[in-house]
Structure formats: C-alpha cells, structure tokens
Amino acid sequence: MLRQLRETMAEPLASQERLDKIVNVIAENMRADVCSFYVLRDDGALELFATKGLDREAVHMTTLRLGEGLVGLIAAEAEPLSLENAPSHPGFAYRPETGEERYNAFLGVPVLRAGQTLGVLVVQNAERRHFGEDETEALLTTATILAEMIATSDFDNLIKPGSDIDLRRPRMFTGVSLTDGIALGTVVLHDPRVVVTNFIAEDVEQEKLRLDAALEKMRVGIDAMLDHGDMQSSTDHREILETYRMFAHDRGWVHRLTEAIENGLTAEAAVERVQNDTRARMLRQTDPYIRERLHDLDDLANRLLRMLTGDHQGIGRNLPDNAVIVARNMGPAELLEYDRTKLRGVVLEEGGTTSHVAIVARSLGLVAVGQADSIVSICETGDDIIVDGPAGTVHIRPTPDVEQTYIDKVRISARRRAHYAALKDKPSVTRDGVDITLLHNSGLVADLPMLEDTGAAGVGLFRTELQFMIASRLPRLAEQIDLYAEAMRLAGDRPIVFRLLDIGGDKVVPYLRSMAEENPAMGYRSIRLGLDRPGLLRTQVRALLMAARGRPLKILVPMVTETFEFQQTKLVIRREVERLKRSGDPVPVELEIGAMVEVPSLLFELDQLLPEADFVSIGSNDLVQFLTAADRANPRVSASYDPIALPRLRAIKLVVDAARRYGLPITMCGELAGRPTEALALMAIGMNRLSMGPASIGPIKELILNLELEPIKRSVAAAMSDGAESVTIRELLKDWIDRQNLPV
Predict the structure, then answer these.
(1) What is the distance between the alpha carbons of residues 381 and 109, in angstroms, rounded to a whole number?
(2) What CA–CA distance (Å, rounded) separates 682 from 692?
(3) H or E stretch including 50?
(4) CA distances from 228 to 32, 225, 241, 244, 460 (A)
(5) Which of 17-26, 141-150, 395-404, 719-728 has the highest mean pLDDT?
(6) Computed over its alpha carbons, how large is the radius of gyration of the chain?
(7) Closest to 691 (Cα-Cα) out of 738, 621, 588, 640
(8) CA gap 233, 227 in Å, rounded
(9) How confident is the model at residue 234 (pLDDT cuts 50, 70, 90)?
(10) Of 58-67, 313-322, 327-336, the least confident
C-alpha cells in the first residue's frame, strides 16, 4: 500500500484526482468498503475532501464541527477510534447525503503534523468486524504520509474562498509584551526542526539498523556531555540531560519507533510519526509538568532526527534580512550569538518581562514577545511574521490586509521615533518645575552609543554579568578592564554606575559550578557568591578601578541583605584601592559605592545601611518578587500582583524617604521606571531619578514634559495614608492621566 501511495503522490495529477486515487488505494489494501478523508478547515469544520464508498455528491458538501460525530471526536482528541457497530455509538452523527447508514465497522485515525490535527482518515465496512491493532497501526502510518502530502501540496483548487487547511493558514498568537516596537520579518527557528523528505522504507531491516545506530550515537553523545567537567555538579543543565538520558533509554519509546518502521516507514519518518502522536496527546494535558516533558521529548526527537539525517544546522547559519528568532526559550548568550545587524525581533514560548533574554532584547533594540504558547510547532523557518511588541501579539503568515495595517503602523512609529528624537535635548522637567533625571539601563557596550540618540543623563545601571554569561570561560582581568574602559569611553562625560557581578538564580554561568537549589532566586547568588569567592570579587573590583584610569567611578553592590555584607564589600574595594596606590597606578579621583535595595529585610536596616552608602538604587524586579512571594519568571503568578499596588508602593516609599533623610541620591533601576503609569507612580512618591531601557527614554520624557506633578503627589499621598484604600493607585493615576491628557 505504501509503495502504491508513493507512486500516486509522484504522479502529475490534480489535487482532487490524487486524493481520489489515494482513498481508492487505501480502501483496496485495507479490504474496506469505504475510505474517506476529512480535512480540518480554518473555521474549525471538518470537510469531506475525498471518499471511496460514500456518495460522491457529499464530497465538499458534508461537514462536521470539531467534536461532532465520530470524525469530530477523533479530530478533537487526536486518538484513533475502532468500532464494530458505529451507528450505535452515542457520538455517531448521521449525514443522509453520505449514505453511510449501511456501514457498521468503523476505524478512524487523526492525520497529524507537528502534533496539530490536520484531518481524519476513516475506513468502514458494511459487515460488523473489529479492526485490530495491526490495522490501526497501518492506517496511522498511512495518515503520516498523507499529512506530509497535505503540508506540501497545492490544494487551492479544492478550497472554498475564505477557508484553508489548518497547518498553513494565517495564525495569531497572544503573548506578553517584552519590548516595544513592531517588527515585520522572516521566521528563523532557534532550533529548527529537521524536515523529513523520505517517508517510505525500501528495506525495513536496514531502517531498524539505522535507528539502532542513531540511538546509540545519541546516547553516547548525551553520556559524554554528562561526563564533561562542567556537568559534574548537580546543575539545572545536568538535570535536563539526565531527563534526556532517561527518555533515550526508554524501552516503550524505542518499541514504538521500531513498530512504526515495521509498518513501512523510514527511521526518520518513524521518529516524526511517534513524536506527532506523543505531542498530540500531551498538548491536551493541563498539567504543567507534563507540558514541560513535552519540550524534553521534542528536543530529544529533534536530536535523533539530526543523527539520522546528518542535518546539523545551527546558529552559525546565515540569517535573512529582518530575521525574527522564534524559540521555546533561550538564554541571553544564545541571543547574542546571532548577527545583530540582521535581527529584528525574538518570540518565545516562555520568558517573562524580567527574564534576562528580555533585558538583552531591550538593550539590542529588538522587538520581543514572550509566552506565545506552542508557536514553535506552528511556524516554519522562512514564514512571514509580524511581531507587535506593545500588544504582545504575533502574526504568522499574515494576510495582505494585516500586513498592510502593520506597514502603516511602522510608518507611524517611525514618525513617533522622530518626535522623541526631537525631545532629546530638552531638559526633562515637569510643567510645574520638578527636575527628573533620566538614565539608561545597559549591559552591552553596543547600546551605549544610544546615549547620544536619547539625550539620557547617563547610565544608571550597567549590568556587568552579561559579559560573564556570554563567555565560554571566566573573563580574564585584561578582558574585563577592556570592557569597562570601553563603556566609560562611550559614556563620555556622563556618569555610569557599574553593578558588581549579579549571577546565580536564573542567571546561569555554566563554567562556575554550583549545587542544585530548590529556590535559586533566594539561594547562592549575587554578592553572597562574590563574598564567598573573594578572588572573583577582587578581580572584578580591580578591573573596574584600573579601567577608570583616575576618572570618577561609581560601583553598585547588588542583593545586599544586611549592612554587614555591604561593609565587607566596601572593605574589599578599599583594599584594592590601596593595592593600586602601592603599585603606583592611578586611582579614581572620586569613588562612590552604592547599595542596591532589592531584599525586603533591608527595609528594616535602612538607618544602619544608608550612612555607609554614597548612593542608593532600587531593583524593583527582585523587590516585588520577594514582597509578593511570586517568582518573576513564572507567568502563572508573576502577573497576579500589581507592582504599584499600595503594599509595594509603600515599601518603595520607605526607601525614598530614608534616602532623602540622609541626603543620598536614589535611583529606580528596575523595569518599573520604563513604563509610563509605573514611572508616574514613582515620581508621585518622590523618586526623581529613573533608569530604564533606551527605548523608554522618549516616551517617559514626553510624559514628564506634559506633566503637572504636585497635584498628583498630593493625591497619591492621601491614597497611601492609612485607611484610604477606596481606589487602587493604578485607578487613581489613570484618572489623573485622563485629566491632564498625558501621553501614556
């Protein structure tokens, strides 16, 4: 049957003629009275596309809704269904135009690709009989071939206007906005799926040998990675590979692959067939653990396909112009490996607004959207894509109307950027005379030239850990000096605040071994790690002092939990200063050391900490995370808490008021500062220094220039007083935004 199908697919036939011949081949070989093929349309209806045995007039006339009848049930559940007496089944839906009432025995299987249901393939017999497992498996194998034919053939002459086959139709995904802007471009899958072109086996035994060899090679590769020195400690990376190894040795998985080959598929087609079935089942599960294992199985299947096909295409490939990377998830180092001159955007199935890949995307000026569920399995490299950053929406294979709409939006956006550029030299002062200092958050020297474009007063936060995260080994002293010196050169006369190394938690540095932690966000990270590994801390401090070459230097200490930690860090810095003096090297003409407030316990030690500090910065990302006990990287809980609700805003105001008492400059360095409504809340409680991504400077400056701040300050102060909780801070600010007609 498979050989006949291959010959039929190779013939120069029209789409309908080919389908008609295919159902005849299947019916003949399955000894069935009926073979019918239903396609899932864009509107969710299953349309009868071809039949042998049912009335011909029903073709393209009979439809069933998803979940309706036996065919609709198979499509909805993506599971085969075998019945001896189909009309007696409670889900049976009679369609008189088909004449199907005279058939009893029924076997239907889903036609799947990438785990998505494309249609349903059915065989029927008049006499009652039971279709066995072998026959079900044979029909599933046939459905695999049919799915590939649908995905690659031209069905335009069969499809009514306004409908399309599900796999290649335009799709829209709603996720979470990670950055602003709009990107029109071409999909590049970060981990591209291997395209299987050879489906039907010539020699079953040879295909089984190929599978065994590929499995062994894959297992050896996984074992080698686990034996690598970097993996000897229990890290997240090791746990992932351990999961891979468990699946790679799973007998049930290997048995299903072998069974698919025995039914006539090549080894690579068998992998795709089994993974299709697995993906279809697991996509219908709600358990997040099951869904996470689906990613593991997808990655493992893709790894095995690469072994079988020799396709080892990776990041080093050439990018098209206006490339948009689509991935399940990725680290900042992986994003930085791409050619930034051709990159326009990034779309992730995971990833929140405070994830580090989102922060790097903002630094690079990329449009980014996260939490676009299942987008990797729906799109292909080369598809047209539109990423709407502010709306958090992604359009795959957009229609001409949608594309034109976004082309118009891009033109408007370009005019808006020109408008913001015209504001760069204007002082950021409110209408009632309150001076607000606007600064950049940065971590790459590549985005420092944007200081000239935005007119920002300086860099309020330079994340030094990005250099460590993108390196394959610990950066040497000279390499660190070069980076910091270049950053200072690009900043020119503007101040730049260097935050000491903030790694650990979700900022993984693979070459630094660490023990597995149940809650890494509250574990061995940041200044705790630096004080525990004084050589690492001293080297970075020395690099910063030497890079300054006598110029003023600002150093920010992250994740301070108690005053003692800050004092210990200052002691390390002073010793390095004395060391430079003894060696005759220049020391900074002015050295300021600041503390980052992002741990709630520090709110109760402000009177001990602030006299020790030269300035204060607030890291809202971690502070809000710890105040709400909501993991900022977990979208299921992180979106449930308003960061400017009264409890969080009161905590931030404690720090603002304390800094004012001690006469210290205070800067907000978290993501809140770059969002207009949140920035307005911060200004209303007395925060006059805001550090944000470069793209946010223009919108926030325009807000400031149109703002009368004092009445909003009084209103927010009244709302924050005890018992005055009739409206939320957000609702209160929205009212003021409307009253003052503020641009947000």
Answers:
(1) 29
(2) 13
(3) strand 45-52
(4) 56, 5, 12, 16, 39
(5) 17-26
(6) 31
(7) 621
(8) 10
(9) very low
(10) 313-322
Taking the C-alpha atoms of residue 101 and residue 114, their distance in angstroms, rounded to an integer, is 34
Residue type, 231: M
Dist. CA 49–CA 72, nearest whole Å: 14
- First-residue to last-residue Cα distance in the chain: 64
* DSSP output for 349-404: SS--TTSHHHHHHHHHT-EEEE--TTHHHH--TT-EEEEETTTTEEEES--HHHHH
Q: Quick check: helix, strand or coil at residue 187?
A: strand
Q: Which of 379, 395, 440, 669 is catalytic?
A: 669
What's the pLDDT at 514? 57
The C-alpha angle 497, 503, 507, rounded to 5 degrees, equals: 115
Q: Tokens standing for 376?
A: 């990797």
Q: Is 77 helix (H, G, I), strand (E, B) or coil?
A: helix
Number of neighbouring beta carbons within 10 Å of residue 302 = 17
Residue 33 and residue 22: Cα distance in Å, rounded?
Answer: 14
Helix axes 267-283, 133-152, angle to 10 degrees: 90
Least confident of 271-285, 489-503, 705-719: 271-285
Q: Which helix (H) or strand (E) holds 529?
A: helix 526-532
d(CA 599, CA 607): 15
Which pLDDT score is estimated for 202?
Answer: 85
Res 3: pLDDT: 82
Provide the token pair at 707.
């703002």
d(CA 142, CA 110): 11
- Confidence at residue 43, expressed as pLDDT on a 0 to 100 scale: 72
Would you say residue 250 has pLDDT above 60?
Answer: yes
Using alpha carbons, list the distances in angstroms from residue 585 to 295, 540, 553.
53, 16, 15
As a 3-state breakdown, the chain gives helix, strand, coil percent values, each rounded to 5, of: 50, 15, 35
- Indicate the residue type of 359: I
Of the candidates 11, 257, 27, the one whose C-alpha atom is nearest the C-alpha of residue 149 is 11
DSSP 8-state secondary structure symbol assigned to residue 604: G
- The model carries a pTM of 0.60
Q: Are 602 and 527 in contact (CB under 8 A)?
A: no
DSSP letters, 650-670, are HHHHHHHHHHHHTT--EEE-S
Query: Other CB atoms closer than 10 Å to residue 262's CB: what's the count?
Result: 17
Rounded to 5 degrees, what angle do the CA atoms 435, 440, 442 make?
165
Report the C-alpha gap between 682 and 506 in whole angstroms: 27
Q: Pull the structure tokens for residue 405.
A: 């709409």
CA–CA dist 596, 666 (Å, integer)? 10
Q: Which segment, 57-71, 302-316, 360-374, 457-471, is predicted with the most confidence on average?
A: 57-71
Q: Which two tokens stand for residue 711?
A: 């009445």
Res 458 pLDDT > 90: yes
Token reading at 460: 């309020």
Mean pLDDT of 156-162: 44
pLDDT digits (tens, 9 = 90+) for 648-680: 999 999 999 999 999 999 999 978 899 999 999
- For residue 91, count other CB atoms closer than 10 A to its CB: 15
- In this prediction, residue 324 carries a pLDDT of 95
Catalytic residue check, 379: no
Contact criterion met (CB below 8 Å) for 71 and 120: yes
Query: What integer best gives the mean pLDDT of the chain?
Result: 85
Selected catalytic residue, list 35, 190, 356, 395: 356
- In the residue annotation, 669 being an active-site residue is answered as yes
H or E element in which residue 539 lies: helix 534-548
Q: Which ranges constitute the DSSP H helices of 130-266? A: 133-152, 204-227, 236-248, 251-262
pLDDT band for position 299 (50/70/90)?
A: confident
Beta-strand ranges (E) seen in 502-567 are 553-557
